[in-house]
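Work Package 3 (structural annotation) set out to generate three-dimensional models for the target panel prioritized at the project kickoff. During this period the team completed the workflow that converts sequence records into C-alpha cells, so that structures can be stored uniformly alongside our sequence database. As a representative example, we reproduce one entry of 90 residues exactly as it appears in the project archive.
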Amino acid sequence: MSRILFFVFLAFLVWFAVRMLGGSRKKRDVPPAEAAPAERRVETIRQCAWCGVHVPAGEATALPDGRLYCGPAHREAARQVAGPDGRRDA
C-alpha cells in the first residue's frame, strides 16, 4: 500500500512540475501590455430621444431634424407620432 501511495505522490509531483514549467513558457510568449496599441478610438455616447437608452453615436439612427434614436423602430415610432412636418400632433 505504501508503494502505491509513493508512486501516486511521485506522479503528482511530475505532473505539477510539468505544469509549472509549461505555464511559465506560455507567459513568456505573450507580449507585454505596453506592446499593445495605445491609440484607442473614443466614440460619443448619445441618448435615444424616444426611450432614453444611451447608445454610441455611430450606431444611432437619426431623423432629418437631428434627433437620435437607438434603432429604426424608435425612429419610426417618433416619425409616426410627430407626423410628416416634424411637429407633434396636439
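Helices lie at 2-29, 72-82.
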